[in-house]
Each structure stands twice: as structure tokens, then as C-alpha cells.
Amino acid sequence: MDKIILGRYLPGDSLIYRLDPRGKFLLTFYFVGIVFLANNIASYAFLLAFVLFAVYLSKINLGFFIKGLKPVFWLILFTVALQLLFTPSNHPIWHWGIFTLSNEGLVIAGYIFMRFILIIFISTLLTLTTTPIEISDSIESILKPLKKVKFPVTQVALMLSIALRFVPLLVDETTKIMDAQRARGVDFGEGGLIKRIKSFVPILIPLFVSSFSIAYDLAIAMESRGYKDGEGRSKYRVLNWSKRDNLTILFMAIVTVILLFLRSY
Amino acid sequence: MSNLKTRDITQLALIAALYVAVTIAPGISAFSYGQVQFRVSEILMLLPFFNHKYSWSLIIGCFISNIFSASLGVADLILGTLATAIACLIITRLPAENKFLWAVPIICAVVNGIIVGAELHFILHLPFWLNFVTVGFGELVVVAIGAVIFYFLMRNKNFSKLIR
């Protein structure tokens, strides 16, 4: 249960933790973008070195990152096997029916594998060092320019943080309801696909009713404390953009230049 | 949207939390992720059909769920949420007649199949049509069963009043 409350966030303190979540969020996307620029062993090795350096700076045990690969283990295996065996080549090492193993296949499989590792490690770094609340705050801040096109940024941000706050409560509620229905003889996770999805109904309805009653109480509590609409509200958590965030951006720019150099090298 | 009352905001937020809770709750989430995904919480994709404002719940719920999931990290965070947003946009354009309820699973399957399929194709070089079929199939099955469930649920006056 504790694991769910925190999402995948791991409490800690290091340079990566102290970076502004907005910067971290955008730079993570930027990194996923530049991963596609890598096209040879040197550039992939350089990016891997960069990610491992970031992991080192975060002071988080590498084991947590490797654990992050577990849920996608089969997807990785499937992808690598597909590239290994189905890459067409004129100089196969081994050939049997529709399967071809070649040098080209090995290289492409290796690159895809590296890309996988890089993207998952950097995403894991973001979610391990940033609380979901920080992510939702940075989303609000990043979406702010959309206010000009009448996009309801403050209301969406409020919904996002209320939702985050109530996820653990509703997970608890879901398990309770499931236990109650089990006591009445409902089987969860058994039988065929259709049966498994249908067993969702006796959970869904009580969950709906209890969410609506929580929402009703919450709305009354908010209004009695003077909530009108999102405009002009002050913030409890204020995001601070500091010098180290600028330096991180500069560092990323240098990484990009080196990558471009290695790419054409 | 600007005329959402406080109660609408809390209600939409709670439904988003419900989506996330069902996605990550132990026991039901068991077959949520992987090559063929059966994310049971996608049943809630039927809600925007009955009441457009629930699109917000679905988009926010999907976004938070993807923070917790690990498959393709931040790529999923943006593209998965985008897929839900586009599906919701199309669903809310459907005429509010009961027969169009059956179009919802197809819309969800096609939109998710294309976007997630393309994502897997570009990042992992997996064949697009294979992704389209595996992603779309999981989505189609869940939302189609959801459509049957909601078809009968909405006949219940109290439940239908709660949603609309």
C-alpha cells in the first residue's frame, strides 16, 4: 500500500532531486528526443555514459533502475528477438526457413536494446526523483501559455492534484469493495477474459457511489472555505528556477553538441 | 469548461482518481500492461459518451496512470494521454443516441492502435500492423464489454441520473 501512495517516488536528496521539476520534466523529453539522433556505437555509448552519470548524481542504487525494466522484460525480449531473426541481409550467419541471423540484425538489435534501456532509465530517473505532485505542478506551469486560447489550465491542474490526492484512498476503497464482494462469492481474476472483465461491475457501482459522495463532501468543504474559482489563488508549493537549472540546460546543450559530433564522426 | 462548478471539479477529479485506482489496484490490474494490454479501467471510456465533461476525468486519469506504469516511460506519458484525448474528442462528437454507443469501442481501438502502434514502431521498430492489432484488440475487447455493461447499467434510473 505504501508503495502505491508514493507512486514510484523514492525519497532522497541529491542534485537531481533538487532540480526544478519543470526543467527535469522537459529535459527528460528532450533526452528521449535526442536518443533518436544516435546512429553508431560511439554515440550510443556516449548517451549510456550520460545516463549512468545522471544515475550516479541522483545517488540512487542502480538496482532500482534495473527493477524498472522488469515489467517490460517480455517486450524487450520480443523486440530484440524480432530484430535479430527478421532483419533481411545478403550475408546471413545462420539461416533457417524465414529466420535469418546476420551481422546487420545483431547491430540493429543491439541499438534498439540500447534505446530501450536509455529511455526507460531516464524516465525512471524522473519518476524516482520527482513526486507526482511536483509533476502535476510542472504540468500546470508548462500549460500556462494555453490560457490564451481559453484552455482551463488552473481547473485542470486543480483536478489533477485532487485526483492524485485521492488515488490512495480509492485504491483502498477498491480493495475493500473487492473483499466485500469476495465474501459474497464473486470470483476476481478467474475464468475467461469476458468473465474477468464482467466481474468488474460489482466493484464499479459501489466505487462510483462512494466517489460521488466524497466529491460532494469535498465540494462543500471547499466552498465553505471560500473557494470560488481558480483565478488569483496563491500557492502552497512554489517552484523555484535557480542557477543549477540553467547549468543543467547548458550541460544538456553540450551533450547535444558532442552527440552531433559523434554522429557524423 | 469555464462554467464548471466546484462540485463538477471535485466529481471529475474523483472519477479520474477512480480510473487510476482501478488501473493500479492489485487484483484487477493484473493484466493491464504488456504486449496485449487489457486495461480494465478503459471501460470508463464509455462515460464521455453519456456526459461529455467526463473526458477530463479520462484524460487526467490516463495521465496519472502512465506516471505509475513503466512500459515506455515519458513517451507513454504524452502519447498515451494524447490518444485518450483524441478518442474523447471523437466520442463527444457522436450523436447522443443509444445505437452510437457501439461505435465507442471501435473509436477507442482505432485511435489507440494508431497512436500507440506508431509509438512502438518509431521507438522499437516493431512492425506497425502488429502493434496496431495487439494494442487495438486489447482495447476493443475491454471497451466492447464495457459498452454492453453500460448499456444495461444506464437502464437503471438511479445510476443513469448519477452519470448524466
From TrEMBL, chain A:
Compartments, record wording: Cell membrane
InterPro entries reported in the protein's UniProt record: ABC/ECF_trnsptr_transmembrane, EcfT
Topology of the protein relative to the lipid bilayer: Multi-pass membrane protein
Keyword field: Cell membrane, Membrane, Transmembrane, Transmembrane helix, Transport
This protein's record includes keyword Transmembrane helix: yes
Homology family: Belongs to the energy-coupling factor EcfT family.
Function: Transmembrane (T) component of an energy-coupling factor (ECF) ABC-transporter complex. Unlike classic ABC transporters this ECF transporter provides the energy necessary to transport a number of different substrates.
Subunit structure as annotated in this protein's UniProt entry: Forms a stable energy-coupling factor (ECF) transporter complex composed of 2 membrane-embedded substrate-binding proteins (S component), 2 ATP-binding proteins (A component) and 2 transmembrane proteins (T component).
Entry protein name: Energy-coupling factor transporter transmembrane protein EcfT
Organism the protein comes from: Companilactobacillus crustorum
Upper classification of the organism: Bacteria, Bacillati, Bacillota, Bacilli, Lactobacillales
From TrEMBL, chain B:
Transmembrane segments: 12-34, 54-79, 100-123, 129-154
Keyword Disulfide bond attributed: no
Keyword annotations of the record: Membrane, Transmembrane, Transmembrane helix
Top-level taxon in the UniProt lineage: Bacteria
PANTHER family named among the record's database cross-references: INTEGRAL MEMBRANE PROTEIN, INTEGRAL MEMBRANE PROTEIN-RELATED
Name the record gives this protein: QueT transporter family protein
Lineage: Bacteria, Bacillati, Bacillota, Bacilli, Lactobacillales
